[in-house]
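Thread: assembly with ligand

MN 10:42: here's the input set. Chains plus the small molecule as SMILES. Want everything predicted jointly, not piecewise.
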Amino acid sequence: MSKAPTVVRTFDSAVFAHLARGRLESEGIESFIVDEHQVTNNPLTAIAVGGIKLVVAEDDLHAARELLDQRIEVSDTCAACGSTNIERNARGRRLAFLTLMFAHIPIGRAKTKLRCDDCDHAWRE
Ligand SMILES: [Zn+2]
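BT 11:07: finished. Tokens for the full assembly:
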């Protein structure tokens, strides 16, 4: 058992470092970020300090690497039949965007309507 702090990944951006940390924390792997403020305040020092580092205990290194290497795929599936043949209707978003551009007030629903092409089941996102 080793609790020695070990760098699992380095980043140029604090945003991506925090996203990765959130991913690890969601699976119960404790982690912390090193040199975030140094690199954010003076990006030219990123090379000197080795970037923003995401650090875990040495025991968690393998699991953390596997977790961060996984791709998260999000796909819409029909709750009624399980089909992935889904049609999106973003008309409400377009209307809200257009009214925001011209009247500076968004009018319309921001939710997207989804409809299954196989069984006609419809729902909102
Ligand atoms: Zn369906």
